[in-house]
Amino acid sequence: MTQAIRFHETGGPEVLQLERVEVGDPGPGQVRIRHTAIAVNFIDVYFRTGRYPSALPAGLGSDAVGVVEAVGPGVSFLTPGDRVGYLLGPLGAYSQARVMPAEVLIKLPDGISDRSAATLIMKGLTAQYLFRQVYPLKAGDTILYHAAAGGVGLIACQWARALGVTMIGTVGSDEKAEIAKAHGCAHVINYKRENFVERVKEITGGKGVPVVYDSVGKDTLMGSLDCLQKRGTLVSNGTSSGPVVIDTTLLAMKGSLWVTRPAMVDYALPRPNMLKMADELFDLVLKGQIVSEPKQSFALAEAAEAHRALESRQTVGATILVP
Q1: Residues 235 and 298 in one domain
Q2: Which is it for the CA torsion 306, 125, 91, 45, positive or negative?
Q3: Is 127 domain-assigned?
Q4: Taken in order 254, 128, 316, 314, is the CA torsion positive or negative?
């Protein structure tokens, strides 16, 4: 038996319960992992509240790191003792141990700690596919990125700097502005004190930007569209303030704009794609161009408190649970 966070109904953080669960031996193509650090992501809130449906009762969490305890038949590329991380597969990362499909596991380099890796697997690979695949950036580009001091955002700040990209980032406090700047964000806008559309136009000499990465959703949608150049692209990569609804006629009126709502699974699979993405991320980390450590840490039993902090925007950067 082991312990895991489960929820039997959707709702607020209080629905999360620490329960004892059975973890069996891995079957064909499977591996049993003992977790050492578990990532907390805003998508976890969507599942807990029911915005993203799941069969109940359910586990929670989509990515974590740990040590391989046992390997099932047919798995030849992993052995007990290997350090691994994952970001795909069934919900249930909020647990001390679990059985996972081997094909979604990524071996971790020796130079990256478990705590650091827990902030990188989902969030770092999200930055990779946003910047390198969804809208491939190049040196000299200027972009707008919302929530620049968030878990993905701080990695995005550093990745933009490594690429030679000028990143304009929005944040909700002066403290977060300083943190985003320290991580490589060239221009930081405190949206609580400044009109981000006006500031983007000022920074770009009235031209706007070719791409906006918007994980906020409903509250920033119209402003994001107004920051785009003609034929610009809105990458809608989250909806923390509510779902996005767009009248396509508006896209034509504002300059033949493009909108995409990307999903990790469509960029990270099949497995060779995921490993290539991880290699690029880990290379930047090992070179020191991306540094990522958890800014907040909670015990597994405190998962509800972690969610309260995340939803109230009290967190900066990445948050992890420690089993």
Answers
A1: no
A2: positive
A3: no
A4: positive
| Direct distance between the N- and C-terminal alpha carbons of the chain, in angstroms, rounded to an integer | 14
Strand order in the sheet with 17-21: 17-21, 2-7, 58-59
Q: Give the mean pLDDT of 237-241.
A: 85
Backbone phi and psi for residue 198, each to the nearest 5 degrees, phi listed first:
-60, -40
Give every CB contact of residue 117 below 8 A, 6+ residues apart in sequence: 37, 65, 83, 85, 108
Give the CATH number of the domain where residue 316 resides: 3.90.180.10
Name the phi and psi angles at 127, rounded to 5: -60, -40
Q: Write the pLDDT tens digit of every residue in 279-307.
A: 999 999 999 999 999 999 999 999 999 99
Is residue 316 predicted with pLDDT exceeding 90? no
Residue range of the domain that includes 146 = 139-261
Tokens representing residue 120 in the block: 């990188």
Instruction: Report the domain count for the chain.
Output: 2
Tell me, what amino acid is at 30? Q
| 66 token code pair | 């740990």
Do 109 and 178 have their domain in common?
Answer: no
- Residue 134 — pLDDT band, cuts 50, 70, 90? very high
Q: pLDDT digits over 91-101, tens only?
A: 999 999 999 99
Please indicate, yes or no, if residue 134 is contained in any of the structural domains.
no
CA gap 120, 198 in Å, rounded = 33
Q: What pLDDT was estimated at residue 177?
A: 96
